[in-house]
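Hello,

Our lab assistant flagged a job as stuck in the queue for most of the afternoon. It eventually completed. Since we weren't sure the result was trustworthy after the delay, we are filing this so someone can double-check. Below is the sequence as submitted and the structure that was eventually returned. Let us know if re-running is recommended.
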Amino acid sequence: MDFKLPDIGEGIHEGEVVKWLVKEGDVVKEDQPIVQVMTDKATVEIPSPRPGRIAKIHAPEGKTALVGSVLVTIDDGSSAAAAPAQATPAAPRAVPAAAAPTGVQPHAPANGPAAGGVPRVGPGEITREVVRAAVAAQAAVAQPQPGARKVNGKVLAAPATRKLAREMGLQIDRVLGTGPNGRVTKDDLQKFASPHAERPAPAGAVSGEVPSPAPLVSSAQDERVPLRGLRKIIAEAMHRSKSTAAHFTYVEEVDVTDLVAFRTSAKAVAEQRGVRLTYLPFIIKAIVAALKQYPYVNASLDDAAGEILLRKSYHIGVATATDDGLMVPVVRDCDKKPILQIARELDDLANRTRAKRATRDELRGSTFTITSLGSLGGLFATPVINYPEVAIMGVHKIMKRPWVVKDQIVIRDIMLLSLSLDHRVVDGAVGAQFMNRVVEILQDPKLLLLE
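-- returned structure --
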């Protein structure tokens, strides 16, 4: 039988094959995990729908497969296993809502690391019934002909293709798609625009054929590592952010001597309640107070609609280093939670993120992001905005330094903060005022009692 990529969530039309857990010739059992597939925000282990032998793997590691395209042929003793795979994948068809897998949610704007983060969903959360229902539904659908195709009223195309269409001034729903399932490709856009080549293109638009980058020359001792999985997601998110947002960074130094003393005295109380109290919960509360005063920093720019979206929730993402790369768990509604509750949730989220047990919802939806190098040192950094947010705060090492207090040189605890902003939305003066408010609170932590 030809086993196709099942429909594992509404709005998800494709996934990248991260790792095959079996090889051709292996004998597999029913429900045995056979492949890891990464969708927009989740990596899922997909089990075999039935026992048999792996006859042929059609989607190699690193390939992006559409829902309904053949992943693998399993020889289960039936005549179907001997039939060759179709070149054109079957159209995706939604699995009934009652059978939708736990942990995979509808598509939302990417929350990439500095973006983003990618959770790992256990194989038990994609049930045998879901896989069988998806395979049965796909097998019942006739092969589509090339052409423009809509899913849920939206033309089927990759986000990068949609962005290119906007830059070229094209209405993507007028473009005939020649890709799998009628998907609109970059080549389709270029062919559609070619009769109007004399029309001036917007700044940054691409016209004509885009040359492929020349391969890098390597030596015998060099090692080549495929850019795939989470590393590829991070690379794409960082490139999207830097090529879209107009970055500028504002840096300020903070005398946190009183905060250090306040946190030291509160640590014992927190430990009695089973909470590990770091500086981040205090910084989060200070940032939330400043976001309330300067709402354009707690915003996103909807490029497609040409609108600034002022967020009314305060969901703070905290970039977390993992073995696979940078991920961003989110503490929600920080304006409504006390410091100890934020500390408890933050510690739990960070631990589960590093253990690859955070859910997809816990790794998306932030309105503002913090990235902390903590004790790793360095003076300061210029962090990359977690697009489509418009701001990210870099928190750096606390160091004892000579400081002038009332005309006297004394030793104080000093920390640097670096704030990267999207200049399309936030002016320099607003960014400076926002930072000054954060600094004011951190230098006098008693002000947190008023929040």
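-- support follow-up --
The delay was a queue issue, not a problem with the job. The result is valid. Confidence is low (pLDDT under 50) at residues 80-128, 138-148, 195-210. The chain has eight helices and 21 strands.
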